[in-house]
Amino acid sequence: MAETIKVGIADLNVCTPPNLITTIGLGSCVGIAIRDKTTKVGGLVHVMLPSSQEVKSNSNVAKFADTGIPELVSRLEKMGASRTRMVAKIAGGAKMFAFQSKTELAAVGERNVEATKKALAALRIPIIAEDTGENYGRTVTFNPETGDYEIKAVGKPVKVI
Amino acid sequence: MSEISVDEISSQYFDVLKEIGNIGAGNATTALSSMLGEKVDMAVPKVRLMEFKDVGTTMGGEEQIVAGIYLVVDGDIHGSIMFVQRKESAKTMISKLMGMPSEHPDEFSEMELSALKEIGNIITGAYLNSLATLTNLTIFPSIPDVCIDMAGAILSVPAIEFGTIADKLLLIETDFTDDEDMSGFFILVPDADSYGKILKALGVM
Predict the structure, then answer these.
(1) Minimal C-alpha gap between A65 and chain B (Å)
(2) Which of A1, B71, B94, B144: CA 20 to 30 A from A100?
(3) What pLDDT shows up at residue B23?
(4) φ, ψ dihedrals at A140, nearest 5°
(5) Interface of chain A against chain B, CB under 8 Å?
């Protein structure tokens, strides 16, 4: 029986076929799915903030793009994935409230997406698809077998990237 | 101002926050009652410090559609306050305020969104007033903004703000009832310095 592994907010996990991996209700957070095309080992990390360097409370590595992504990659490597074959798909980074830009954490969604791209580039992992920005929440499900990244949003048709 | 780790909140501090929640929600109930022109009851608010990953579950799952009304707070303290309701509870409140049932149970019209902002304004205003009176601090709320979406996505906004100072979120659950369910949740997110100011003003530290 195939299972769907759930990843919470500021959390990460890995997954092999026929199982799927999902995270529910990405707002300004970013969901990064990484997969080795050959071994079909995949994983998902749900990051909340761009950088662990900017805040004091940084013990949870999965909370930040700069630490969560390398952690996911190392977990995948332990399962036999090779970094040179890894590809990434990213979703989320929305701006849920229009005036959020006024606060100190201006456009945190946008900054999360930027930090995600930077972290992936540093690891030389290409981003082959993305669905980011806008002003709505997303639920994502990743299939490590096919690499399909399914995106559901309220009142919108299901999208697969 | 000394730094406070919210993850190590003392039980005394917790009691203080609970009391603020109680008084604030009491005032909010009075405000709500006069706005709707009918008697509104309130259960004793539940104050909980929760892990981020459990917050969505409290509201009926991360995919439960909720209405979030969000205001930025300025003055002596800085931060934000959010009032969150399940879609159904928000619809109930709106139709009571507007004096007519909603035409679309799943969608919110411009008029309904505007009514919801007003409700949020009054309820959070009453709550913040209590906090300001108790602490003797000046607190100015911004104009409200509203968003209807999955609980997980809406709650990630205060969770992210709180995430810069702690790994947990402080949630004040308030059940407003008359004959129908109109319950909601307050999430108050002061920044790290403001936490200290509130505690000091209350004589806790």
Answers:
(1) 13
(2) B94
(3) 81
(4) -120, 145
(5) 8-11, 24-29, 48-49, 54-57, 59-60, 63, 94, 96-100, 102-105, 108, 135-139, 154
Q: Is A15 designated active site? A: no
> How many beta-carbon pairs under 8 angstroms link A with B?
123
Task: Kindly report, residue by residue over A129-157, the tens digit of the pLDDT.
Answer: 999 988 899 999 999 999 999 999 988 88
Tokens 């793009």: give the residue.
Answer: A65
Domains of chain A: 4-160 (3.30.1330.200)
Structure tokens at A134: 């806008």
* pLDDT for position A128: 95
Whether A24 sits inside 8 A of B52 (CB atoms) is no
Task: Give me the amino acid identity at B58.
Answer: T
Three-state helix/strand/coil letters over chain A: CCCEEECCCCEEEEECCCCEEEEEEECCCEEEEEEECCCCCEEEEEECECCCCCCCCCCCHHHEHHHHHHHHHHHHHHCCCCHHHEEEEEEECCCCCHHHHHCCCCCHHHHHHHHHHHHHHHCCCCEEEEEECCCCCEEEEECCCCCCEEEECCCCCCEEC
pTM: 0.83
Selected from 3.40.1550.10, 3.30.1330.80, 3.40.1440.60, 3.40.50.1000, the CATH number assigned to the domain covering B7-201 reads: 3.40.1550.10
Chunk chain B into consecutive blocks of 10 residues (it has 205) and report each block's average pLDDT, rounded to whole numbers: 50 71 80 81 75 72 87 85 87 83 81 88 84 86 88 85 68 71 77 75 71
